[in-house]
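Input record (Table S2, row 530):
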Amino acid sequence: ASPTGYWGYLCDGGNYSAPSKYQQNLEQLSATLPEAVASSPSLFHTQAVGSSQDRAYALARCRGDTEADDCKRCLTQAFKDARAVCTFRKGISIYYDTCSLWFAEKIKIHLGDLQSVLRADGPPIPTQCKAFQNDASTLIADVARKASDSSQRHATGEKGCDERACNYTLYTLADCLPGISAAQCQVCLEDLTSTPGLSGRQMGERKATLLCSYRLEPYQFFRDTKGGHTNKTLWIVVVIAGGAVLLAIALLLWWWFLAKHPSAIDSFNKITTNWQGKTIALFLDYDGTLAPKVDNPDEAYMSSEMREVVQELASLCATSVVSGRARDKAENFVMIENLHYAGNHGAEIKLIDETEAYEPAREYVPVINQARERLEEAIKEIKGASIEHKKFGISVHYRCVEKEERELVKKLAKQTIKGFSELTVTKGDKVVEVRPKAEFNKGFAVKYILEQLARKNNWDSSQVVAIFIGDDKTDEDAFKVLRKRVGGLGILVNKKRKWTKASYSLEDPAQVQKFLQMLVNWKKKAEAEV
Ligand SMILES: O=P(O)(O)OC[C@H]1O[C@H](O[C@H]2O[C@H](CO)[C@@H](O)[C@H](O)[C@H]2O)[C@H](O)[C@@H](O)[C@@H]1O
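Output record (L263DTV3 complex):
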């Protein structure tokens, strides 16, 4: 570690000048944040200072077993070191044994965007300890799993080797930022531990990102809290603090989401700036996008106003519905002829002028039929659970199941499908989707339709704007494809979900209709101007 104790850091973002408003904001943060963290029962605090363009965001925490004075001292030093090692840089993450500090001009806490810091040190691994790497990796993976399963998102563990020639005990601590979900914690720690970190030479190492970290040492570096801290007052404090932390994280995520995924309606002029003369290909999801979510999947009707605007758009640009529904079901709900339809998340695609559908998972139909029978048997006792058979896939719905029994439905579906090596499950909104392990998803469907349309219409692909509007997790496959494509635009329809590859957002089908109407008006005006 450095003379002042940090073991790793990352400089980020642009530079600020001195004196400047941003510098003042950082100074204010350094004067208040260490105390705020040290006096918070969870030893975690977030703060933002300044107005829009000079705003500085900071997030700081201390390890759970740190005394308040040590915590404050560590963070005060962290602000000083940050200025010394990343002079005039607007962003930094800096890590110490007992605390970590992050500040920046933008909130950047998308799991995929986080960079990790690694340090490998400690005594050399004795050459006779052949099992060291394996012991260390297994221990780290076990403790990481325990941390994401635990409500505190924190776990420790140890593992010893007492062979004659090789004697050691390894200690590990893994944790995530308090307040992040178990799933986010799991993904973060899996990312961190799956990439090779162990140097192969030293017995100790630590790795961290803003959201999670782990540390391995051949000595006990954390305080053993087994059997301690069980009094009632402490629990009350922890519960209240946990609530406050959750609220802070929710606010932080909301700021971040709005900054990163602005409303497609508010940004309409910006979005369409360079579209004049371009070919527009529009892709629309069905449930939650064109039609509001309802309890009974057979009653998810779209409004006639929505139908009118989609129909008008279809006459102005290539428009496709890309749904998780069976294709014929989606067609029956939408009831518009001049649309391309992809059903079953892309397992069946039919373009307007074609008589045959493209069906990349045709050979899986018999196994889907068998799985359907087993699934029906597995969930028959659970009130409210239902099966939607879609020829190339099955949806196991649990929207109408009592909250306490929903996990059971998911577990039963997953367990049943484990018996079918050709099938896999993905998650949707209150639904488990069973699909063939074949090469298709909504991303493939978008690519396939774009390729076919480009071939048939002699499109210059660099002049095509492809827009996908969708609300569900399975739409992320399409957002991912469009994010990588020049002229690609993903729009997420969701008020709650914050992790997405889409670039813009809309709140609900009513806003989708408004956005589509703006697109119709823009297209008509653009055509009149030619
Ligand atoms: O890709 P989509 O067109 O959005 O289809 C995804 C799934 O949508 C349907 O289920 C969802 O909507 C139902 C009706 O509102 C709702 O009851 C259910 O809880 C949602 O998950 C559809 O039934 C599935 O087959 C689609 O895969």
